[in-house]
Amino acid sequence: MTLNGPLYTSPASPSLGALAQPSSQTLDTSPAFYSRTSRAVVDCCGHEVGVPDFHSAVDMLNSRLKLGLGSVDCHAFSFMLTALANSRRFAGEIHIDPVQGENSAAHSCHSVVLAHEIFRRSGLLASDRFTPEIDSVRRSVAIGCLIHDMGEILGELSSLAQRNANRSIEELPDIEREIFRITLTEAYRAASATPLDPSTFYSFVRSFRHDAKLSEKGIAGTTPEQVARVLQHYSERQQSTPVGPDITAAVGTALRLYDMAELKKSVSDNQSIFIGNAVKVVEHLQGLRHFMRFARVDSNRRRQHLFSPETHADLLGDSAKPASTKGVISLQFISSRRFLSNVKYIEKELPHLFSSASTPDERTLAGALRDAAYQSQIEWFSISRSFIDRTSTQEMPGLVALQGQLAQADTPEDRSDILSGIEHILKVQLNKDRTLFIRSCRGSAEEQTSHPHLLPCESRTRIERLYSEALRVGFVPTSETPLLLLDAVPSQLSGFLPPRPEREAPLPPRADAFDGLSMPPPQA
After folding, report:
1. How far apart are CA 287 and CA 285, in angstroms?
2. How far apart, in Å, are the Cα atoms of 33 and each of 40, 52, 303?
3. Treating both helix axes as pointing N-terminal to C-terminal, what angle do 360-383 and 132-147 enclose, rounded to 10 degrees?
4. Nearest to residue 192, comparing CAs of 256, 250, 120, 247?
C-alpha cells in the first residue's frame, strides 16, 4: 500500500483535497539539502532548543519534502510528536551523555530527512527517472519514518541498551501498536476539532501514561499483562465516543504504514514488505549516526566520513557543540557484545530489502540503502573497538552488575566510581582480545595480516577492509547475519585483504603499542 493523497480527506476542508503528484522540479535534490534540512529540524526540536516546536517541524518537512499531508494530518502528527518527545533515547547508555541522547520525536523527524537523502543518492529523484510510482514509495517511506516510534508515546517499553544488558527484556510491538492506534485516534479527534483542542489530547496522554506506568522504567516498571489491561480499558472508553469515518480512514492508513515497518507479519505484498524494511534501515541508521556524533571518542581516533557530513552540520560554518565526555566511557572500550549488537541492528533488514524488491527502481533503492548502511558501519568501526570477539553472545556478568548499579546511582560521585569500575573491566577484556587476535593470526597487532578467513577474534582494520570490498563489488546480502559474523568470507569478497608484503621476519608484538591500554593493576 502506497499513498495517493493526504491521510485525512474530509471534503469539508478545501485544503485537504486530492493530492497532485509533485514533479521532479519541485523536489530539492541538491547535496546541501540533507545538512540544511537537518539543521532546520534541530532549530525546531533539537536538545539545544528550550521549548520544541513540532508543529513547525512537521510543516517544514511536509513543505520541503512534498509529503502531501493535509492540515489535519500535520496537526495530529505534531500533537503525537510533542507527546512522544517525553520518550528519551539511549536510556542506560554508558557511552553518551543522556542530555545528548535525543528523544524519539526528534529522531523520527531526522529519519525523514535521512530517507530523502538516500533517495537522492540513489538517483531516483533525478528528472529523467522520477515517476509517480517512485514518489508514492518515497512518501510512504518518509511518513513511515515519521510515525514508526509513535507506539512509544507512553514511554519506551525497552531501549536497545536495556535489551543488550538483560536478554530477558524484549520489544513488544503488538502492545506498541495498540498504544499508537488509541493515541493517534485522539490526536486526530483534537486536530479536527474547531477550534483545535490540543490540551484535551495532552491530558488524555498524561492519564494514559500514568495508568500504564511506562514513562519512567519502561516495561521493567510494570508487566505486559498490566499494560494490556490498561489498553483494554482505554480502547473500550474510546469506543463509547466514536469518531467519524474520515478519522477512522486516516488512522487506518497510518496503521498500515506502521505495520509495514513494525509488524511485518501483518503485511504480505512485496512492496509493503520492501517499504517497511526501508523504513527500519533508515531509522536504525539515523540512530547509529546520532550515536556516533555524540558518543565519546578518544582524540587518537579519527572518524571516517564516508556517507555524509555530520547530520546537524551548520552550513553557515558555525561549529557544532562538542559531545560531552564527562561521565561517559570512550567507544574505544565498548564491549564486543554491544559492538556486535549495533552491527546486527544496522544490517538485519538488508537481505529482505533485496528479496522483496520487485522492480528495477526498488532494487536501485535497495542498493542505495545497502551502501548507506555499509558506509555508516565503516564510520562506526573507525571510532570504536579495535579488536572484536566475534563469538561474544552475552555481556560480561561483572559489567551487567555494575550497569545495574549505575542505574541506581544517587550522586555524581557514586556514578563516577561505578563508571571507573566499568571502564576497568572493558579495558582488561580489550587487552585479552588483542592478545587473542595476535595469536590467531600469528602476527602482531600492528601488522596487516592477510589471513584469508575471518578469525574468532578480529581486528577493526580487517573488518573495515571487508566492508570496503563489499561496497566496491556491490555485494547483495542474503542472510540477516552481518558480514563480520558470517562463517566464511563470501567468494565475491575474497579479495578484501591486500597481498601480504614480503618481509624478513614479523615484528614482535609491543605490549605498549595499542591505544594506551597498558594499565596499572586495579587498586585494592
Report:
1. 5
2. 10, 22, 23
3. 40
4. 247
* C-alpha 138, offset from chain centre: 19
Angstrom distance (rounded) from CA 524 to CA 517: 20
Contact 506, 445 (CB under 8 A): no
| Coil/strand/helix, residue 88 | strand
Measure CA of the first residue to CA of the last residue in the chain; give whole Å.
Answer: 63
Residue with cell 520489544: 171
Lowest mean pLDDT among 233-242, 286-295, 383-392, 443-452: 443-452
Distance CA(391)–CA(485), nearest Å, equals: 9
d(CA 429, CA 205): 45
What pLDDT band is residue 519 in, cutting at 50, 70 and 90?
very low
19 in helix, strand or coil?
Answer: coil
Which residue type, as a one-letter code, is found at position 177? R
CB atoms within 10 A of CB 462: 20
The grid coordinates listed for 146 are 515519521
**Global pTM exceeds 0.90:** no
pLDDT digits (tens, 9 = 90+) for 331-368: 999 999 999 999 999 999 999 999 999 999 999 999 99
Question: What is the sign, positive or negative, of the torsion defined by CA atoms of 32, 34, 39, 40?
Answer: positive
DSSP 388: E
